[in-house]
Fold these 3 entries.
Entry 1:
Amino acid sequence: MSRHGRQRWRAAILAPVLALCVLGSLAPTAGAGGSRPSNLGVTGDEFSLVFSRPVVKPGPSLVQFQNAGEDEHDLVWKRVPGDHPKRAIGPVAPGEVSERTPTRFRAGAQYRFWCTLADHRERGMRATLRVRR
């Protein structure tokens, strides 16, 4: 198996594991308005991003980024069309996990995620997330 194939396979395996870790680490407390933040795990490596789920519900969501690669990576996102990119998480060292306090995702929107370091976005570290009820 090629190096690229092994990395994609590793990301596909790690994403569900990361999602379970995120779900298990959050206390079931209700936030303002009575709803719990949803969870979104993002796993990145050379050179891909994989979500723990392709769609999230509108409202607050805890985004957790796991760097499963060999290089340092960061994670930014923006609503499409819409707001300016924000440095959301990172940079994150290889093998590390970092998270962002709950971020509010808008109903019916799409968000583009990518790594801003070097040419990582152009080489495949990008993904689109959909938000719907």
Entry 2:
Amino acid sequence: MQSVRLRATNKIALCDIPKPTPGPDDLLIRVEACGICGTDRHLFKGEFPCTPPVTLGHEYSGIIEATGANVTGFAIGERITADPNISCGTCPQCRLGRVNLCQNLVALGIHRDGGFAEYALVPQKQAFLLPTTLHPHHGAFTEPLACCIHALDIAAIKPGQSVIVLGGGVIGLLCVQLARLAGAAQIILVTRQASRRALAETIGATASCDPNATDPLTLIPNGADVIFECAGVAETVAQAPKLAKSGGTVVIVGVMPKGEKVEIEPLDLLFRELKILGSFVNPFTHRRAADLIASGTIKVEPLISRRITLAEAPDAVASPPRPGEVKVLIVP
């Protein structure tokens, strides 16, 4: 089968590899779609730890073609989405229920072969059913949505509160929709990309602004109750606390390169009693995400910028996103 593999830092290629055979607890799926994530670009550049050579892709769904001898609850022909983050279940963090902080965490598409391929193996405990009536490409949004749900859980938005989302990529636009569902009265999307601002206002943002032209605090003078940093760049991470009202919460969702530093003023955090929280992957949120995708409550079709083949994927991962691009899907 064809597979897009990260061979080493800055080395990615379309390869022919053997079609996998499911172990006793595995599902073999025919991949219908897999999203390219910003993390994949970090992996390519060596800015995020992984174990090459490995087939990339951790945002995917597909149709079951074979099951292992021990598999129950799944049948050939059903559609599933894969939660890529495999926790050990026995380390101290897992025993406390913090499976996303597992000391032995292994991820599909990062440490084990993932979804940039015609076929993929998914351990049955990482598989979640999706309706066969669902658009075959929409299941690929389950993983990023699950991560955003965790960020919303951490933020604990109350109805009527105000929210600023920094970054208009897929994570930012999903957080906009979730903030709307949570009852936020004001949701402001901040991004330089005009097309992303326009899209945000059609799916839930009450306003948007270009930070080069408008200070977000002119739209919400006292600051917002909750700031979601979804861009994963030093500039917006440093900006986020300045946009929060006193007593507000900043949730860091975007992924910055390992080792990059940001200046924060501790006295400001102290005197305004700000909370700065990290949100890492998707503990126990994948089922909720799958249900939101299946119900159509979260709009994902408008977030698809283009669909590409496996042959086009290496160049797409190695190149920066195109201007205004939100989500690129690989359709094997």
Entry 3:
Amino acid sequence: MSSHNSLTELLNQSGVQFRLYDMGRQIKAISPQQFSLIETGLEIYPRPYLHQAWLALNIWNAEQVQQSVVWFLKFPLDEQGYLVQAVRDDFINRLMLNINQMLESRQLSEAEDALKDNPFSFTPDQEKMAMFHAISIKEMSTEPSQYYAQCRDYFRGKLNWDNWQEMGLQGIAEVAVNIEDHQQAISLHIDKYPEPPLIALCNALEHVAIDEKLALNLLTLLEVQLPLAPINIPLCNALIRALDAAEDDQVKQKALALALHSHLSYSAQILATIAVKMADQLANPQITLLYLEKLAISEAGQQGFSRILADLMFTKNLRLAILHAFRDPNRSDQLITAIGQMFGGKF
């Protein structure tokens, strides 16, 4: 048994500096104080995804900031959303087997291999990895990547609109992280960007906060796309993801209403994106039933219906909203059938 009662305690005693981030639905910072409550079972995990806590732990020595190390960790949650204590203890025990040398020398070179063969580690996709590095660059006040200047100039309208092929995903992520410096220019030019860089930018924007003008311009782009045939699913999907960065919930709810009343509502990809990226908005009673009705008849099928709802209902407020919608007297026969098949007719 480890002599440390928590990961937070282990890190504090090691003398290293660290930051924590939720890596599940979007990348969001978690304070050490909040994580301490989470890992000691005093608070549920705030944004579970697929019944797990997805975390990034950035560790560095205050005297050697450039030598930071990142661990990507995923921990299962119990049926109430709490971190499984036995799993946390198992992780600490495994970690201590590999990390004692680092704790003694305070050198991070040993930390890079500390998660070797650890069942709780994972590797984010390229998009999230680029965004995480962009966030780290900004918060650690280190130099931007070699891709940033070109991407910044492109989105500011200083380059030809066709000159996007050489832009790196890392540079686009850094533009998004520094959006407060660029959103005025982006709002001005957003209808001029070719589809590939626009989609990449939108996907990065979901992790930050955008102002009202940019949010409304994105909403206008979505409205323009909806009547077109065939409908552009990848672009609409990216616009919905970006609109989750709007500070005004009314803008998000309008985007969802537009999507769910259009041909987009048949798309499994769009409905999955809404469930993952805009899950908080689905607690709105006016949105909940509409979403469930569309999901019940979408191309996602019964398997998609059951999987998406199983994930959503893992969060308490969404579970209550969905159960209330399940009992709505105005629910359709298709929704009643989908509910019955999900719960084996016992609901």
